[in-house]
Amino acid sequence: MAPRHTQPSVAETDSTTAEQVTVAAPEADDTLARAKAGDNAAFAQLYAQHKRRVYSLCMRMVGNVTEAEDLTQEAFLQLHRKIATFRGDSAFSTWLHRLTVNVVLMHLRRKGLNLVSLDEAMDPAPDSGPMRSFGTEDLRLTGSIDRMALEKAIADLPAGYRLIFMLHDIDGYEHNEIATMLDCSIGNSKSQLHKARMKLREALSARNSPEVLP
User: Is 7's pLDDT higher than 60?
Assistant: First the structure.
C-alpha cells in the first residue's frame, strides 16, 4: 500500500501521541505498583487521576450530589483497602469502575431501594404498545438529541430503570453482567431496559412536542 502524504500533520501528531503513550505507560504502571505496595503518595496520584470519573459514575447512578460525593469517598476507601488484590487481569480503570459500581449498589441496597421489580411481569403494559425485540438499538433514541434534554430525561427515570439504562447503554455492560451485579434474571434486565427506553422516548417526545416543525 502506498504511503499517505496528504496529511503529514496528522501523521506527526500520531507519532507524537505514540511517543507520549510509550513514555506515560511505564509511569502509570509504576504509580500503580507503588500504590499497591502501600505508598500513600502514589495512591494520592491515583486519586487525582480517577476521582472525576468515579464521581461522574456515582452521580449518574444515584442522581444526588451529596450522595455521589460520599460514595466517591467510599469508593476510594474501598480501593485503598483492596488495591493490593488487583492482579492486572483487566485495565485498572475497568477494575475501579466495577469496584465503584459495587459500592453504589451496596449503598442502594442498604437504603432498601428496590432496584428492579423482580416480580414484575415480562408482558408489556396495555398502554406500552407492541413489544419490540430486546437488546436491539433503539433508533428513536439516536440522532440529534439535545444533550441537556437527554441527561435530564435520564435523571428523571425511576431509580431501577435509570440504573439498568446507564449500566447497559452508557457503560456497556452486557445483560448477563447486569443480572449478576443486581442479582436478577437476564430477562428482567432486558425488560427494565426496554421500559427505560420507552420512558425516555416519551419524555423526549413531550419536550419536543411544543416545537413547530417547518
Answer: no
Grid cell in block for residue 171: 457503560
pLDDT in tens, 76-104: 999 999 999 998 888 898 899 889 988 99
Task: Match 491515583 to its residue by C-alpha cell.
Answer: 46
Compute the radius of gyration of the chain from its Cα atoms: 21
Q: Taking 50 as the threshold, does the pLDDT of residue 41 lie above it?
A: yes
Residue 174 lies in a domain: yes
As a whole number, mean pLDDT of residues 159-163 equals 84
d(CA 116, CA 18): 44
173: domain CATH number? 1.10.10.10
- Which DSSP symbol is given to 169? I
Looking at the domain assignment, is residue 68 inside a domain?
Answer: yes
The total number of structural domains in the chain stands at 2
pTM, to two decimals: 0.61
Grouping H, G, I as helix, E, B as strand and the rest as coil, residue 122 is coil
196 close to 161: Cβ distance less than 8 angstroms: yes
Residue span of the structural domain in which 158 resides: 144-208
